[in-house]
Each structure stands twice: as structure tokens, then as C-alpha cells.
Design goal:
The protein has about 325 residues and is an all-alpha fold. The chain has a single domain, classed as Na+/H+ antiporter like fold. The protein is about 80% helix and about 0% strand. It is built from 15 helices and no strands. Helix 7 runs antiparallel to helix 13, helix 7 runs parallel beside helix 15 and helix 9 packs across helix 10. The longest helix is centred in the middle third of the chain and has 30 residues. The radius of gyration is 19 Å and the shape is globular.
């Protein structure tokens, strides 16, 4: 468990490390055998995250303006931006465009709450954003994919809905059941202080395993053209830079400090775990190419989220 905690706290290094390990493995070993691990590791990635999800926050009152503006940015601006960037840089590569769309489509993650807490922002608001964003993203994702890329890529809508049910809603139900069982057996205090912290590192193991598998399946292509990684990184940096800039301006001029911080992390942090799961379970052989983009987005997102915490007092004033 301690090793997993170290990996979780150092995702900016552990993700590139597992990417490199996957590339090396795929170059020298038969990576096709790893495909059987995609669904189990996907479940391992998503289920622990759901155990700590506070579903009751969806029905809590207050901060209506904050939640509405957050989701307008999440679903009315950022997916279109990701799609536009994908088309500008990779107009003749529909699956790469799909990768950028997936990267920008599913908002919020556990890190939304963590980074908001580190920056001393509105934690209850961040929790609510995370739950609402996850549910809305899971419902809307198949329709966005069909509308935006369905003309050039066959989007198996039924399969997408089925996979989302398996990788999002089933773990959500099981996670909530696990949460309630632990609270009833050990009490809310022990759950909050001891048990709750044990689940995120397990989710990290799932993320790193999926990244490893995706890179192993794509290794031959990457080794044949290593410049491919830099070709994807630059557009991703543009995507995240614009997202941070837009959310910071809106937060600074329309909300108080705590709400502004929650809004930034509730719109910039994308749920790359779910995006990765959809890519690897729905799109077959092309999933590893999409996953490469998402894996690179992890590196940028974690690094940018950490650095932004250091500038929050400068941007929004002290707490």
C-alpha cells in the first residue's frame, strides 16, 4: 500500500514511468495477451474512486450559480475547444480527433476535490461539481461522440452506453454500497479518518496498469516515430492553457475566492480515468492510439494542477 501511495502522490513521474515501461514491454514481448486485463483494470481504476463519492451532495442546496456556470463551461465550451484543436492539428486523423474530444469531454475527478482543498477553496462546492460532472458526463458522452465524430467514425452507441454502465454506474452502485457498509460497521469517524484514504491508491494502480497496457499495444508505432509524443503534447498544452485562463478570468470576476478556486479545478480537471476506460473498452484496436493522448493529458493535468495551487493566493488573494 505504501508503494501505491508513493505512486499516487507522484503521478507526474509514475505515469511517464509506466508509459516507458509499457513501450519497452510492447517492443520485446507479445502485448496482445494484455488485452484480457483491460476490463478488470478498468474496474480497479473506477470502483475505488466511487467508494469515496458523496452522492448526497447532488441534492444539497446553495451555490446554484457556481454549479450552473461550471457545467456550462464543462459541456458548452471545453468539449468544443478540444474538438476544434483536434481538427486544426489532426484534421485527417479522426481517431486522434476523437482522443482530444474524449480528453476534454468528461469533467472533474477526485483531484478536483484534492486540489481545491490544497488551495483552500470551496470544498463542498467541489464535491458537488464532481458528482454532477461525473453523472452528466457519463450520460452525455455517447451523444457528443455521435454528434461530433459520428459522421467519420462509426460510434457504437449501444456499446458505449453498455460500457459506461459497466465502468461508471455499476462501480458507482457498488462503491456507494461499500461506503455505507463501512460506515455502518466501523462508524463515520473511522471511515473518514482511516478507511477513506485507502481507496485512491488502489485506483492509481488501475490507472497505471491501463496506461501500461495502452502503451504496450502502441509501442511499435511510438518507437517507429517518437516525435509522435511531442506532436500530441503541444495541442494538449494549448487546450489546458486556454481552459485555465478562461476559468481563472470567470472565477476572478464573477465569484469570491473560494468559489473561484472550486470553479477552476471543477472545469480544468478532466476525468481522464473514465475517458481512458471508454477508449480502451469501446474502440478496439484504435483504443490504444486514443489512450496515448489521454495518458499524455494526465502528465499535463497533474503538473498544471499542482503548480496552480502555488499561484492561487496571487490570483485570488489569501484565504
Amino acid at each position: 500500500m505504501k508503494i501505491l501511495q508513493v505512486l499516487q502522490k507522484n503521478l507526474v513521474w509514475s505515469i511517464p514511468g509506466f508509459m516507458l515501461a509499457g513501450i519497452i514491454y510492447g517492443n520485446y514481448c507479445n502485448s496482445s495477451v494484455l488485452k484480457a486485463g483491460i476490463l478488470p483494470f478498468t474496474f480497479l481504476m473506477v470502483y475505488p474512486m466511487m467508494v469515496n463519492l458523496n452522492l448526497k451532495k447532488v441534492f444539497s442546496k446553495g451555490d446554484t450559480k457556481l454549479q450552473i456556470i461550471t457545467q456550462v463551461i464543462n459541456f458548452g465550451i471545453i468539449p468544443f475547444l478540444g474538438l476544434l484543436i483536434g481538427k486544426i492539428f489532426f484534421g485527417n486523423s479522426p481517431f486522434i480527433i476523437l482522443g482530444f474530444l474524449l480528453t476534454s469531454l468528461l469533467p472533474t475527478s477526485g483531484m478536483t476535490i484534492s486540489w481545491t482543498g490544497f488551495a483552500k477553496g470551496n470544498m463542498p462546492g467541489a464535491v458537488k461539481m464532481t458528482v454532477i460532472g461525473l453523472i452528466m458526463g457519463s450520460i452525455l458522452a455517447p451523444f457528443y461522440l455521435e454528434i461530433f465524430v459520428g459522421a467519420v467514425i462509426e460510434i457504437p452507441l449501444v456499446k458505449v452506453f453498455k460500457q459506461i454502465a459497466i465502468i461508471v454506474f455499476l462501480p458507482m452502485v457498488l462503491g456507494y454500497a461499500t461506503q455505507q457498509f463501512l460506515i455502518s460497521k466501523y462508524g463515520i469517524k473511522k471511515y473518514q479518518t482511516e478507511l477513506k484514504q485507502k481507496f485512491p491508491p488502489i485506483s492509481t494502480l488501475g490507472v497505471l496498469s491501463i496506461v501500461f497496457i495502452a502503451m504496450a499495444l502502441k509501442s511499435k508505432t511510438i518507437i517507429a516515430g517518437p516525435s509522435l509524443l511531442f506532436k500530441y503534447l503541444f495541442p494538449l498544452i494549448i487546450l489546458y492553457s486556454f481552459n485555465f485562463l478562461l476559468s481563472t478570468i470567470i472565477g476572478k470576476y464573477f465569484f469570491n475566492r473560494n468559489d473561484a478556486i472550486a470553479l477552476v479545478y471543477g472545469t480544468v480537471m478532466r476525468n481522464l480515468s473514465i475517458a481512458l476506460a471508454i477508449a480502451m473498452t469501446v474502440f478496439g484496436e484504435n483504443g490504444s492510439e486514443i489512450a496515448l493522448i489521454i495518458a499524455l493529458a494526465y502528465i499535463i493535468q497533474v503538473q498544471a494542477g499542482a503548480w496552480y495551487v502555488k499561484f492561487t493566493d496571487f490570483l485570488f488573494g489569501p484565504p
